[in-house]
Amino acid sequence: MRLFLLTALTMTAFAANSVLNRMGVGPGHIGAVEFAVVRLLAGAGMLALLLLARARGGRGRLSTGAPGRRLVGAGSLLLYLFGFSMAYGALDAGVGALILFGTVQITMFAGALALREEVPARRWVGAGLAFAGLLWLFAPGEGAALSPSHAAMMAAAGLGWGIYSLSARGAADPLGATAWNFLFAGVPGVLLAVALVARGIEADAAGLSLAILSGAVTSGLGYALWYAILPALGAARAAVAQLSAPVIAAFGGLVLIGEPVTPRLVVAALMVLGGVAFASLPKRR
Length: 285
Fold this sequence. Notes:
It is a multi-pass membrane protein. This protein is mostly helical. The chain has helices at residues 2-25, 32-56, 67-87, 93-114, 121-138, 148-167, 174-199, 205-233, 235-241, 244-256, 263-279. It has one domain. It contains eleven helices and no strands.
């Protein structure tokens, strides 16, 4: 039950990132690149403060860990952050979520197979049910336009997030690993921020506030929690669990943006959450 609740909290944080991004970039409060940069730097700052506080309290060291793993984590994080924000400049939110989490699931299931992780039949069935729910919820209607370049950006973001999640396997220090991933990624982020300031930042106070909230709370703290619970979930079950995030985001859009709840949304939510629950059942003894 504790693992289920922590997973639900983490998926809520992931879904909040989609809602916050739409609230900022959609109405033009902030540019897509600016949102990604501020989100990255805010997350790095929050995690650096936590890391320093822990070190001063004698509860951990400031070691960066394996350089190779940090480079993989930072690179995949950058791919996700910028692909995510830039794709939503043209994609419908539902189609974007389908591409993102569908790519994440494919990446993590492929990783589970490559790493020879046992994938029970119930997880394949649960994943199929959940993915069918997403297809039902986010399938574009007649005449829906889909930008190939922005779809490719979102697919790249899903690939980045899937690799980032797989790189968390076996992390002995989840908070430290997440913090150093953000700090390593923050180096090119600072350089890009300087370039944006020189060019002129496209953002108002509301847009900056949404990006900071997304970076410091729902990204930085959310990803630290995700790293902490990933070893217990495993790659296959984690991939299925993430399919619940688009449904949570849709209901968040109802509350914060005023998007309607339709019968299609209700049926799809039942399919996705039912699939996640079925795939998460423990092995029978």
